[in-house]
Write a structure and sequence with these properties.
single chain, alpha/beta, 5-stranded antiparallel sheet, 5-stranded mixed sheet, about 25% helix, about 20% strand, D-alanyl-D-alanine carboxypeptidase/D-alanyl-D-alanine-endopeptidase
């Protein structure tokens, strides 16, 4: 049966800071942009961008927009360029750049298994076995099984003490204080730990996949499950199979502070199944219990239970597992806009440079790294790594400065490769831009980071003009009341891809560039979970909808 995926949007919340006065009347809008040259291609470009930004979807909104020549830094367009705006996931542009600056693209995150004593001839470890987290976001169930197999290959057959989970690389603040409490059950706001489980090959951390299948006839139980399932998780099945023509209403909830997952509602007989990501409480415990099961499966008996603590300095090394290189990890992180990865990177930077794996220490390290790249700290305010907190702000000029600085860094190839590529079919190439700007001059040309919160949408990155000139562009839209204005962002991307200093290009009055529809985005209805309200397609980030 087809599986329907559900990923929910953050709830609406007022902007933390008033960004600017409402836009002026249409006749004055153009005055907010860069002073235009008397005539020529740049003048035409500015006129066209002014026209695009008068789209009704942006009524009452504030848009920070900057276009520069990547090579010379010449500003081709600017609007509200120094206004502090919410960046949403454009904050990941800063987090990833700082991580590459701090760790280098070849860095790997290592998870260790240590023991109080080396195994004796009989394979017995006298004391505890320690699972030490090192901020690896790619530890799937298979990875934990491989690590357990390595423990067995090291000669360990029995542990007389406990399996102790050591997540002390990070502090114990699992959820950022500025995140919406109502978002906590959803994967994009999962708890953060240095020792966690990735539920799938996208490396969504701190979550499990909740699934359900209807029974054969109305009244039959619904078959439900969690993956990866562990002993510390509990499932309550209150769901039933409905009549074949009934509306699906199945939901999965978890009470905060518990790991009890309740399936309720119904699925129609003969209908589709249900699949959704849900966060776990205490991802460290989930990881430890998963590893305990893997040890048992590989013939290693732990006499005690699962505990928590710090591995002693003299503990004996038994096994270890390293992640892929950071430059490769940035691909799923940035292409799919993975919030958990961003937060783990911020805390890991704090642990690396300040000896404290906290948001406060990590963002301070990001600020230092950004200053080393020549960025002005007055142009941004960072609270978290992902942009989920509405206390983050950036200016369009600040983002443009970052994008230009990245081009001159030693890690530029990895950074560029990690950005979503417009219209690219492969989801690990196109990412959140996979279904956007297809069949236009921007297809497989625009490389940019998307961003979405309620009332916030962003697109910032790079594009080559028609004559090959590399351009940096930033679009930060805040305060609109309807669906996300992605069609405006896409039209800007296409217009920049068509720009050439060798000849004038102008859109027809009121028209968007060819190939850009009035609204874009992956269809939401075909991916929404049964019983879940379906928002307008253009208001969904495709990573939230599970369509990219």
């Amino acid at each position: 049966m087809a599986i329907l995926r559900s990923r929910a949007l953050p709830r609406a919340r007022p902007l933390v800071r008033a960004c600017a006065a409402p836009l002026l009347a249409a006749g004055l809008v153009a005055a907010a942009a860069s002073p235009a040259a008397a005539d020529g291609p740049v003048h035409d470009l500015r006129r066209d961008l002014d026209a695009l930004l008068q789209d009704p979807a942006l009524e009452g909104a504030v848009s920070g927009v900057v276009v520069r020549s990547a090579g010379t830094g010449e500003e081709l367009y600017g609007r509200e360029a120094d206004t502090a705006l919410l960046p949403a996931s454009n904050m990941k542009l800063l987090t990833s750049a700082a991580a590459l600056e701090v760790f280098g693209p070849g860095h790997r995150f290592t998870t260790d298994v240590r023991a109080d004593t080396a195994p004796n001839r009989g394979g017995v470890v006298r004391g505890d076995l320690y699972l030490v987290g090192g901020a690896d976001p790619t530890l799937t169930a298979d990875a934990y099984d491989d690590l357990a197999e390595e423990v067995a290959d090291a000669g360990v057959r029995r542990v007389t003490g406990d399996l102790v989970a050591d997540d002390t690389l990070f502090d114990d603040e699992r959820l950022h204080p500025d995140w919406e409490a109502g978002d906590e059950p959803y994967y994009y706001a999962a708890q953060i730990s240095a020792l966690t489980v990735a539920a799938n090959e996208d490396y969504d951390t701190g979550v499990v996949t909740a699934s359900a299948e209807p029974g054969g006839d109305a009244g039959d139980p619904v078959e439900v499950g969690l993956e990866p399932m562990t002993d510390n998780l509990e499932v309550r099945n209150e769901a039933a199979t409905g009549a074949p023509d009934s509306e699906p209403s199945l939901t999965v909830t978890r009470e905060p502070g518990t790991n009890t997952f309740t399936f309720s509602g119904s699925l129609p007989a003969g209908g589709d199944g249900y699949e959704a990501l849900r966060t776990v409480d205490d991802p460290t415990a989930h990881a430890a219990h998963l590893f305990a099961d893997a040890l048992e499966d590989n013939g290693v008996k732990v006499t005690g239970g699962v505990a928590r603590g710090a591995a002693p300095a003299g503990a004996d090394g038994v096994a270890d597992r390293s992640s892929e290189e950071l430059g490769d990890l940035l691909v799923p992180f940035m292409k799919l806009s993975n919030n958990g990865h961003a937060e783990m990177l911020v805390k890991a930077m704090g642990a690396e440079r300040a000896g404290l794996g906290s948001w406060k220490a990590g963002t301070a390290v990001v600020e230092t790294a950004a200053a080393g790249l020549g960025l002005d700290p007055r142009l941004y305010e960072q609270a978290d790594g992902s942009g989920l907190a509405r206390t983050n702000t950036m200016t369009a000029n600040g983002v443009a400065d970052l994008l230009q600085a990245a081009r001159g860094a030693s890690w530029w190839p990895e950074y560029e490769n990690a950005l979503p590529l417009a219209g690219a079919e492969d989801r690990m190439v196109g990412g959140t831009l996979r279904n956007r700007m297809r069949d236009t001059a921007a297809e497989e040309n625009v490389r940019a980071k998307t961003g979405t919160l309620t009332g916030v949408s962003a697109l910032s990155g790079y594009v080559a003009g028609a004559d090959g000139e590399e351009l940096v562009f930033v679009v930060l839209n805040n305060g609109y009341s309807g669906p996300a204005p992605r069609h405006v962002q896409d039209a800007i991307g296409v217009r920049l891809a068509e720009f050439s200093r060798d000849g004038a290009q102008r859109m027809a009055d009121g028209a968007a560039p060819a190939g850009v529809p009035a609204a874009t985005g992956a269809p939401a209805a075909e991916t929404a979970a049964p019983g879940t309200p379906v928002p307008d397609a253009s208001s969904l980030e495709c990573s939230w909808a599970g369509t990219c």
